[in-house]
Amino acid sequence: MDELLIDFSSGPGKFISLKEADVLYDKGSDYMIQVDDDLFFAAMNDEDLENEDFINHSCEPNCGIRGSLQVVARRDIQPGEEITFDYAMTESSDYSMPCKCRREYCRRIITGNDWKNEKLQQKYAGYFSEYLNKKIFQDILQKLENSFGIARNDRRLQPGQDWSAVSITHKTVGSGLPRLRCGAVGWRRKLSITSRQAQS
Ligand SMILES: [Zn+2]
């Protein structure tokens, strides 16, 4: 688990803006990985291309992302098995593509909004690109605010941890103040919420 398989940062390529990425994409070259809202790491020409750039999307991938540019194993991988990750782990730009991975949970259409899918957020906790982890955490804080009226500057939400990944469990949405539990499993963080009623 979590074995490093590919490190794009050690290979050729260039950091480019969304605008530059669009130009490249329109030319038919989409060997790039999104690393922030307006930042992509891309192979700019054929010389930049490596085998690693052909890594495919799967809706049931054997790999995930560490940091922004590293691909790590989510489970044991057999010799000859294709290396895949889910583009939901890195992409948030305005794009969509059909998927024919034929896995049981295939989403058929992959879009730049897939990282917002709560099921995927839980499934891939710890395997999203760093900038998406941050977005997901902001998302969760927003939901806490909406559901429980907990302000995002509430000190219970400030464990002084590096929130590399957060997943959330709504066990009940009671009328009482929910109890927050923050814990760390390795470098993955888990924030689970249960209401006081659920505790008693
Ligand atoms: Zn699929």
Condensed summary:
The chain is of the alpha+beta class. 19% of the residues lie in helices and 26% in strands.
Instruction: Give me the CATH fold name of the largest domain.
Output: Beta-clip-like
* CATH superfamily placement of the largest domain: SET domain
Strand composition percent:
25-35%
**What is the 3D shape?**
globular
The total beta strand count reads 13
What would you report as the Rg, rounded to the nearest angstrom?
Answer: 18 Å
Q: If strands are numbered along the chain, what order do they take across the biggest sheet?
A: 1-7-6
Arithmetic mean pLDDT: 76
The level-1 CATH class of the largest domain: Mainly Beta
Instruction: Give the CA-CA distance, first to last residue.
Output: 37 Å
Compounds present? Answer: zinc ion
Query: Low-confidence spans: pLDDT under 50, at least 5 residues?
Result: 159-200
- Total separate domains: 2
